[in-house]
Design brief:
Elements lengths: L11 E5 H6 L10 H4 L11 H33 L8 E7 L5 H12 L5 E5 L7 H6 L14 H12 L5 E7 L4 E10 L4 E5 L25 E6 L2 H17 L17 H24 L8 E5 L5 E7 L1
Parallel strand pairs: 2-6, 2-7, 3-6, 7-8
Antiparallel strand pairs: 1-9, 4-5, 8-9
């Protein structure tokens, strides 16, 4: 197999679709079309062929990394002559709003669950509640680093990586645009934890006023960045906004219910403005600069299809 040559020195190996698909080897696909449907995002069409081509080789690679991780733990425990609590393998998955992070995370969870317990947590639950965002004048910075309770998130991943049991993660409602009071997802020593969110690879430059010295990425064993050109991301965001306008926004209890009354033209203009003022700005300032810190980058083209894969050497 001949890899794509890159005239620049880079820490990544780059694979086109066929080169990456060849690395699946004989790994079988147990998912069916019926299994795949509930895994897809609100604005995505993804085929089983995409799962075979992209996600099965990725699952194969991660399984190798997990096996090596378990061997290292065994060596350390033998050296120290101790029995340590079960420590989950943590995979982080990040990228822009509307890039399809949640779908990738759910597909990975399904593929890695063969014989293993795999939990999936989104970091939306670690956003500050709406009342706090309003108090801090951060409503238009929701999703930016400063809108997260980073100390609570760090404590969560630290407890998970320490082998703690029954660790709770707050739950976020996209309907009310807020944290659901007194409701939690509980993580109890899974074999694998997939963390999905905007801020998985961000570091000290994103939290200059925070005194903590560790970041989410310090606890992550394997990190994935889902990438696409900004014009595509913006169009996907607008398409998703239009679908929400016809469905979720029509619920009178929805935070964005008022958007359901917009005309098609007004909705496109509103979504475009939100992208430029919030999501696109956050992408350029905070998310995209963290991309090169990932272990693997999935590069999307039209229709959310992965065009190439970049793997850290």
């Amino acid at each position: 197999m001949r890899l794509q040559e890159n005239p620049k020195i880079t820490p990544f190996l780059t694979f086109d679709r066929q080169q990456w698909a060849d690395l699946r080897k004989s790994v079988p696909l147990y998912l069916t079309e019926q299994d795949l449907k509930p895994l897809l995002g609100f604005n995505e069409e993804l085929s089983l062929e995409e799962v075979r081509t992209i996600y099965l080789p990725l699952a194969r690679l991660i399984n190798y990394y997990i096996e090596e991780n378990l061997k290292r733990q065994e060596v350390l425990h033998r050296f120290l002559d101790i029995q340590s609590p079960k420590v989950p393998y943590i995979i982080s998955l990040t990228g822009s709003v509307s890039v399809g992070k949640s779908t990738s995370a759910r597909i990975l969870q399904a593929l890695l669950s063969e014989g293993r317990k795999v939990d999936l947590i989104t970091t939306d639950g670690f956003l500050y509640p709406l009342a706090t965002l309003e108090q801090k004048n951060l409503l238009k910075k929701k999703g930016f680093p400063e809108s997260y309770d980073i100390h609570r998130l760090i404590k969560f991943v630290s407890d998970i990586k320490s082998g703690e049991r029954h660790v709770k993660a707050p739950i976020y409602s996209h309907l009310t645009y807020d944290i659901i009071p007194d409701q939690y997802n509980e993580v109890d020593q899974p074999d694998i934890l997939i963390l999905e969110g905007l801020n998985m690879l961000q570091s000290g430059m994103n939290y200059p006023l925070s005194p903590h010295n560790v970041f989410v990425s310090d606890f992550v064993d394997f990190s994935i960045y889902v990438d696409a050109d900004e014009p595509l991301l913006k169009q996907w965001y607008i398409n998703r906004f239009l679908k929400f306008r016809r469905s979720a926004f029509s619920d009178p209890n929805a935070y964005f219910h008022h958007y359901s009354k917009l005309s098609e033209e007004e909705a496109v203009a509103t979504a475009s403005q939100i992208w430029e003022e919030i999501n696109g700005l956050n992408l350029r300032q905070n998310i995209l600069p963290s991309r090169e810190r990932a272990n693997l980058i999935l590069v999307k083209g039209e229709d959310h299809a992965i065009q190439s894969v970049k793997l850290r050497k």
